[in-house]
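Internal ticket #5521
Category: modeling
Description: The requester needs a full-assembly model to guide mutagenesis choices. All entity lines are attached below as received. Residue total reported by intake: 512.
Assigned to: D.W.
Attached entities:
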Amino acid sequence: MTTITFIHSDNRSQSVEAADGDSLMLAALTHGVDGIVAECGGNAVCATCHVYVDEAWTAKLDPVSDDEDALLDGTAAERLPNSRLSCQIKVRPALAGLVVRIPDRQS
Amino acid sequence: MNPTGLSAAVAPAIPRLAIDPFSYAFFDDPYPAHQEMREAGPVVYLDQWNVYGVARYAEVYAVFNDPLTFCSSRGVGLSDFAKEKPWRPPSLILEADPPAHTRTRAVLSKVLSPAVMKRLRDGFMAAADAKVDELLARGSFDAIPDLAEAYPLSVFPDALGLQPEGREHLIPYASLVFNAFGPPNELRQQAIERSAPHQAYVTEQCQRDNLAPGGFGACIHAFSDSGEITSAEAPLLVRSLLSAGLDTTVYGIGAAVYCLARFPDQWARLRADPSLARNAFEEAVRFESPVQTFFRTTTVDVELGGVVIPEGEKVLMFLGAANRDPRRWEQPDSYDVTRKVSGHVGFGSGIHMCVGQLVARLEGEAVLTALARKVGTITMSGTPKRRYNNTLRGLESLPITFTPA
Ligand code: HEM
Ligand code: FES
């Protein structure tokens, strides 16, 4: 289990104990974190699992793949340099304390 | 019969059922049979067509997500391309496995990406507003031809860049494609017998010269200039959008309207908050599962749900049954516009998961948003009539009366 903190667009913060190996998207869905819609269920089609990764963490994640990069161009909320798709980030112990912000809209 | 070589003592028996999932009686009411299959076990055997079946969510998900073991290149219908000549040249994406699939899929993913949807959005929304205004002025109409068919026909062929002439072939061609995934029953045989004019139209329209600049079709052909695909492959990929992109959304929008007409409490929630439109459409795709089934073929002997399926067998996935499996869903048989519906398999799952799902959702959201904003009541003013297809579930006729908001 790895602690991940989601910050909602109204600044409410919600920490969850995520199972290692799950995606960040799945961790949000299984713990009732609203605001991650994940229409495609993690198959890298929809871009409705968009998050902004806290600046302190961006460099610690695996780099953005070409597919993810193309999808990020279609997010509903503005794409920022720290934009990621939460279904493409795997929870692992090294990410303990990770903080991500949820945009105000996903579609 | 024990083809796996395991002794009967260790190999758990696979329940054999007499259900014919391609019969008119099944289409009229599939739900008791879905339940019977789910309860019988994680894997069943259907004697009528000599195929394995999976109807629980967990096994349907597992088959979708193991494409090396459960392949698509031997056909995603009953016909095994290793034994039987396909009725048309196979699809380069739907009926392909990695690595061939990976390449063609990448092209269609780019053509139908979230960024492309942003550009289409305003036009699709405006067309839905206009359609709903027109139907409100009429008051009573048949929601299948007049809305579920008319709306996609007003946006999708143009988005693809099709010529105005001959579009009346589109729905019959798609209906043929989806009937042809089924067994050699009356529906499939008749569809194939009548297929020649529709096939000729589609083959012609997939050529580069016939596709308007800026549309999905022209974009696909452009990828043959940059070498991602060959110029011989491009027309076949355009064909995939002609096969899978129109009739599916007709059934999807039809399903959503049918749900809203049947469940007034859900319609009231959608009216109160039109931002639920997209989820209300998605939930209709789970609830009715317009695409009911797809097959895979095993490439090796494989254990699934505690039993062994030998190599070279057809496995039939029941998407509609998985989407109502009580092991996965709370209150699976109720239509709930606020349900957290992520994870349903109405668009499939894994590497073949619907590459056009964003187009489908955009159309669904557009129609349901226009309804929620403009329409006061939706009532059924006659008895709905079912349309029979070996793969698609939906209606032939849905008499509806609207009153304005
Ligand atoms: C409500 C509407 C729709 C439903 C329910 C639906 C359902 C599905 C399903 C279940 C699959 C998976 C097939 C498999 O795993 O063998 C699929 C694949 C596919 N769909 Fe859709 N679809 C819809 C709309 C569309 C649209 C609008 C398009 C095109 C614009 C489209 C194009 C495709 C294509 C090309 C594939 C093959 C993808 C691949 O094999 O990688 N579909 N669809
Ligand atoms: S859940 Fe669809 S792209 Fe992440």
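Resolution: model delivered.
Comment from assignee: Chain A has a mean pLDDT of 96.
Ticket closed.
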